[in-house]
Amino acid sequence: MSFALGQRWISDTETDLGLGTLVAIDGRMITMLFPSNGENRMYASEDAPITRVLFNVGDTVSSHEGWKMQVEEVIEQQGLITYVGIRQDTGESGTLRETFLDNFLTFNQPQERLFAGQIDRMKRFSLRYQALNHQHQQQKNELRGLVGGRVSLLPHQLHIAREVGRRRAPRVLLADEVGLGKTIEAGMIIHQQLLSGQSKRVLLLVPESLQHQWLIEMMRRFNLFFSIFDEERCIEALHDSDTPFDTEQLVLCSIEFFKKKRRRFEQALESEWDLLVIDEAHHLEWSEQQASREYQIAEALAEQTSGVLLLTATPEQLGHQSHFARLRLLDPERFYDYQAFVEQEQQFQTVANIATELLTEQQLGKEAAGQLLTLLDNPEATAAITLVSQAGEQSEAREQASRLLLDQLNDRHGTSRILFRNTRAGLSGFQTRHLNSYPLPLPEQYQTALRVAKMMSATQNQQDKLTQGLNPEKIFQQFEGDSASWCNFDPRVQQVLDLLLEDRERKVLLICSEAETALTISEALRVKEAIRCAVFHEDMSLIERDKAAAYFAQQEGGAQILLCSEIGSEGRNFQFAHHLVMFDLPLNPDLLEQRIGRLDRIGQTQPIQIHVPYLSGTSQETLLRWYHEGLGAFEQCCSTGSLIHAQVADALIEQLSAVAADEEAMQTLNQQTANLNQELKSKMEQGRDRLLELNSAGGQNARELSEAIATLDDDPTLANFTLRLYDEIGINQDDKGENQVVIKPGSHLLFPAYPSLPQDGTTITFERDTALSHEDVQFVSWEHPLIRNGLDLVLSHEFGTTSVALLKNPAIPAGSILLELIYVVEPVADSRLHRFLPATPIRLLLDKHGNNIGPQLSFDAFDCQLTPINRHLGGKLVKASQPVIHQLISGGEPVAAEQMQQLVEAAKQEMLNEFDHEEQRLQALKKINPSIRDNELEILLEEKQELLKMIEQTHLKMDAIRFVVSTPE
Fold it and tell me: What is the CB neighbour count within 10 angstroms for residue 351?
């Protein structure tokens, strides 16, 4: 480099400093002053990361006084440049010494940076082009919003999520049975709605006890960061807005909060929401005579929110009228009268019966065929009905005809557009459950403690009696104080220890009612046999819980047993374990099912062994027998448990509170429970809507969807691109083993910060199974913020926008030049437009005559033939060929503009075709299916016009440029 005082340079690493002036040369060091902010920088003169600012004839230069001049002549004297040209403000001839150039001058356009000598590494140019293509592919991907969740690829969940998530303003009731994943379905729907731009503001309304569970589930599984709003948060938010709920996009509230704080509820109504999600919707009571306060709150919010999701595992728990009322929340115009709804349900049952007959794969009866002809009055359906009505063996053609009829029934009849319900009876993939019970003697210490407690409390209430019988260790500890010696004599602890020692590789989950009990047992196991234990309870922080779960999931050197308080049965997935110990039993059948549900999930690979040690002759034995002999709750999913418990609760509590067991009364209670259980299950089976279940499960289409996502998971492109991206921008990577990588900002990070990446780093994996078994590890997909933010960082900065390289190809004469231009078709920044017209790269590879040879030579094939050169030599090559480069850029832009117009027209046609088809479909369906809402059509037409205007506003932007010179072989 040749230096002279007064020269203007620009920093290659800190372009935001503007133009620098060389103010001192001291031996091997130079000092640069950046007048835009008054900062100085000292550089080694041999290898300073700076580029000389030089303009050429035809360029426009700016004076620090604000006027501009088009350069006609460049004069160099004693190392300094003087520009001669015509001033744009006066039209007169003028001169401008480089010392007086605009201090705030920056080079943002690729061609400006290239001519100014700001040349990037060739790897970064390639990485930028790859980033553009990956961004384009993901925005256009039909699976967008479904692949990024830390969830198993269960077909029924994916089907519901896609079916509902793609709708405009979806209003549905998700009513899958307990354990089938309503929360996950809701999360995937929310994720899709946000990524697609259909929704921007979401209000999540849940019972107060479930707020943190939802917060964690949305964050851990979908990287959705909701904010819990209580009174304290609302007061704090009022500093920023008169309406506190306007300060966040994703809001989580309890329905109890709105019930207690009327003003906050009114403020929530004043905010605009795109999507309202209400969990435990069966608590919204309604009758024709009266509606509960909770229902009124939900109704007011639902009236002004375009999208509504209601979640309940028991859609008819509070009666048929309340079920109607929840459907009324979704579509008050459709479900306007309860009696009319009851009459219409009879038609739903007719349709369901026909669906059941079609599913038997037998010849369709005459009555059903006649009903089908009435319901499906179109030529395609008539031909299919004729085929399935004929006698003969099942054939592929007949199977396709049945499928067509079922699809049309799904689309046109019943409540399947607004109600989704999957049951275990309609799904497969569950392992068997086995009860292992261990009768154990009641220790003398407990007998003494119970006698003393009885004498001290002559007027005990039933709750005290229940506690004494079900948890005698609590009574003993009340007398003993802080000491926890009960673990030394309680035979249940030894039984757990024996189970662990039987097989040291066995992973065991233990659940008990309280955190203190879990901690005490854990300490005893460590002291007695040095068992590796992890504990999980409600007093731990989220990070501590994650670490405990990760320690348990670790195969080598991890905890053999995880001891949980009751919170351990909420929301966590431990299906890699097959052994569950219930140290005590909950009184609520739903809690029992939740505990077992941590292991009994679709995807569990082994039969589930349920271990229940109990003290003989106590209420522990009574409760165990009621669950097992009456409900069959240990070895079968108990969907009727809460309903039956409500009916027999008094008799059960009486037995549990008794001083001595009454065998006859116990057998009577268990038999009554078993009869009720069988009766309710028979009613449920008779009332199964096979058409509804078929539509909810998704059938073959759902399985194909799951397989498509699994194929995408197996593609190594994401991992290869991500690790290369992190290398280039300065993120350190450390292979942790077990498909895990620890990433952390390096000391030479290119950007001031990397969003979503903590300063102390995080652990990531690209493997879904690894993420599912290690909840402290982030599951990285194309939808993860770490990837989306990385793409945004690269594409929103000058990273890789210029490059100069040498080409060694014997087919191209030495000295030939090629110019690679990357343009981007940029639509309006609205996510709804992405699936029709995402930001699309256009690549041109121009020879010196302006011919585009890009179609004959792909980017990858061209890139691998190139050799990088340093930026100083690159700058000289660019300077020598600047007139030709200008000419090629001018000739390339019309070619790129023509390609852009073709993309715009194709996108417009695709959008119109889809919207017109959907409009025609909804218009036709509305004639026979009143569940199609008027505003559903209005929203469709309104969005169609909005997108049409947006497509017309698309423009073309040059994004990157690479200059290539061929050299001899």
Answer: 22
User: What is the structure's pLDDT at 413?
Assistant: 60
Domain residue limits at 639:
429-441+490-676
User: Hey, what are 821's tokens?
Assistant: 């231009």
**Three-state SS string across 787-833, please?**
HHHHHHHHHHCCCCCEEEEEECCCCCCCCCEEEEEEEEEECCCCHHH
* Between 93 and 179, residue with greater pLDDT: 93
Looking only at the bridges linking them, the beta strands covering 955-966 and 817-826 are: antiparallel
Whether 830 and 955 share a structural domain: yes
Task: Answer yes or no: do 809 and 844 share one domain.
Answer: yes
User: CB within 8 A of 262, min separation 6: which ones?
Assistant: none
Instruction: Give the whole-angstrom CA distance, residue 412 versus residue 433.
Output: 39
Within 13 Å of residue 2, how many CA atoms lie on the same side as its CB?
6
Query: Which three-class secondary structure state does DSSP give residue 907?
Result: helix
Kindly state whether residues 503 and 596 are assigned to the same domain: yes
Sequence letter at residue 505: E
206 and 66 housed in the same domain = no
Q: How many CB atoms lie within 10 A of CB 799?
A: 20
| CATH code at position 312 | 3.40.50.10810
CB atoms within 10 A of CB 870: 10
663 shares a domain with 704: no
- As given in the structure block, the two tokens for residue 645 are 């418990």
Domain of 101, CATH number, reads 2.30.30.930
For the chain, how big is the Rg over CA atoms in Å?
A: 35
CA 112 – CA 696 distance, rounded (Å)? 56
Report the pLDDT value the prediction gives residue 242, as an integer from 0 to 100: 86
> Read out DSSP for 506-544?
--EEEE-S-HHHHHHHHHHHHHHH---EEEE-TTS-HHH
Residue from 658, 673, 674 nearest 617 by CA: 658
CATH number, residue 527: 3.40.50.300
Asked if the structure places residue 779 within a domain, the reply is no
User: Phi first, then psi: what are they for 382, rounded to 5°?
Assistant: -60, -45
Half-sphere exposure of 862 (CA within 13 A, CB side): 25
pLDDT of residue 969: 66
Specify the pLDDT at position 927. Answer: 67
Query: Are 320 and 205 part of one and the same domain?
Result: yes
Domain membership of residue 270 (yes or no) is yes
- Helix (H) or strand (E) holding 959, with range, is strand 955-966
- Per the CB < 8 A criterion, the answer to whether 584 and 512 are in contact is yes
Q: Which of 42, 72, 106 is the last residue of a domain?
A: 106
957, part of any domain: yes
385: its two tokens: 């009905």
Q: In what order do the strands lie in the sheet with 60-62?
A: 60-62, 68-77, 80-87, 93-97
Residue 318 has pLDDT above 60, yes or no: no
The whole-angstrom separation of Cα 87 and Cα 62 is 10
Could you give the CA distance from residue 293 to residue 299 in angstroms, rounded to a whole number? 10
Q: 324: closest CA among 315, 313, 311?
A: 315
- Let me know whether 501 and 645 are in one domain: yes
Asked whether residue 660 falls in the same domain as residue 696, the answer is no
Residue 101 carries which DSSP code? B
Residue 834 Cα distances to 138, 189, 195, 510, angstroms: 9, 18, 10, 48
Structure-block tokens of residue 161: 């999520």
User: Does residue 657 have a pLDDT over 50?
Assistant: yes
* Residue 354 included in any domain: no
Does residue 762 contact residue 733 with C-beta atoms inside 8 Å?
Answer: no
Res. 354: pLDDT tops 90: no
What phi, psi does 898 have (nearest 5°)?
-65, -45
| CB contact at 8 A, 819 and 846 | yes
pLDDT at 476: 82
> Which element (helix H / strand E) includes 181?
none
Number of domains in the chain: 4
Q: Which residue has the tokens 């207690």?
A: 260
- Which amino acid is residue 300, in one-letter code? A
Residue 306 structure tokens: 């375009």
- Whether the CA torsion 233, 235, 236, 237 is positive or negative: it is positive
